Amino acid sequence: MKKAIRIICRNLERSIEAKKLLLENPDIQNEFSKSVDLVLNSYHQGGRIYIAGNGGSAADAQHLAAEFVSRLAKDRAPLAAEALTADSSILTAIGNDYGYDSVFSRQIRGKLTTHDVFLGITTSGNSPNIVKALQACKEKGIPSIVFTGHDGGEVRKWSDVCVIAPGELTSQIQEVHLVLEHTLCECVEAELFGFDL
Ligand SMILES: O=C(CO)[C@@H](O)[C@H](O)[C@H](O)[C@H](O)COP(=O)(O)O
Ligand SMILES: [Zn+2]
After folding, report:
1. What is the model's pTM?
2. Which GO terms describe its cellular component (predicted)?
3. Which atom number of ligand 1 is nearest to the Cα of residue 149?
4. Which domains does the chain have, with CATH numbers?
């Protein structure tokens, strides 16, 4: 029991430390602001946001898509958004027939237009299916954003906007990503629906 208390306090300190680094870094904040502009631009053109990630970041992709389509905090019209992680038939068919690295890139080729925007979430910045997804976006002229960590990894080379969350550990980076994701939705809905922030 005592051990659990020590660990929760340690983890809270770690989470606060990573978030504090973002609070003090205008370059990352500026890059984040570009991600809001890209998403707004897509909605203004009648497009939508498509989101993908692996593991905890797949859950984040679905969490964020749900908030766009349903709502974050205030009542408003639904916003079109889709997580590319949610259809087990599509994921298993592509995984089985073309390989796991292609699970997102093939959906991007099939579903997205240049009016849409893709958001990849990867703490390492090196998950091959996210790298391939960004390459597919480049090929098709689809705007792309990544929320990543560490030095930005491979995804940094292929994305239009790359927001690098501070933190040494995957969990810390994911906890910063969640703040970015909620803030992205909050900023987009405030702008589109005239909410005060
Ligand atoms: O949630 C966690 C760890 O907190 C894990 O499920 C984690 O998301 C998985 O290991 C992912 O495969 C990591 O992928 P990525 O963030 O490096 O792209
Ligand atoms: Zn996790």
Report:
1. 0.98
2. cytoplasm
3. 16
4. 2-193 (3.40.50.10490)
